[in-house]
Amino acid sequence: GPLCPQTCFEDGDYGGCSVDSGCVGGCFCPNGQVMDNNGHCIEPHRCPCLYNNIMYPRSTRIIMKKNETCRHECECQHGSFLCDKIETTIC
Fold first, then answer.
1. How much is the pTM?
2. In the chain, at which residue ranges do the beta strands (DSSP E only) sit?
3. Where is the signal peptide (predicted)?
4. CA separation for the pair 89, 10 (Å, rounded)
5. pLDDT band of 59, cuts 50, 70, 90
6. What is the mean pLDDT of the chain?
7. Which residue(s) pair with 85 in the sheet?
8. Minimal CA–CA distance to 2: which of 39, 29, 37, 38?
């Protein structure tokens, strides 16, 4: 398999490895899947999100504070949080 297998947390950069750096023996995810934080092969859209060193399952919604007056409601999608400003706050 590839020397630099893709995981949920590398955003396609393969941890700084070159994708053409050769092959090694071992267990790898099938094409179209990535390794999650538990070592399981999953489709990329099922990846969890990491925020403040806490792992959140996909579809989890949290409130992120930018500062004391600015908060965003965010949902874990495809391994990262997508956020909307909460209308009652001033950013």
1. 0.70
2. 34-35, 41-42, 49-51, 54-56, 61-65, 71-77, 80-85
3. none
4. 32
5. very high
6. 80
7. 72
8. 29
Yes or no: say if 58 and 76 are a contact pair by the CB < 8 Å rule: yes
Confidence band (pLDDT; 50, 70, 90) for 14?
very low
- Burial label for 8, CB within 10 Å (0-12, 13-18, 19+), is buried
**Average pLDDT for 46-73:** 88
For the chain, the distance separating the N- and C-terminal CA atoms, rounded to the nearest angstrom, is 47
3-state secondary structure at position 86: coil
Q: Residue with structure tokens 């997508």?
A: 82
CA 66, CA 69: separation in Å to the nearest integer?
8
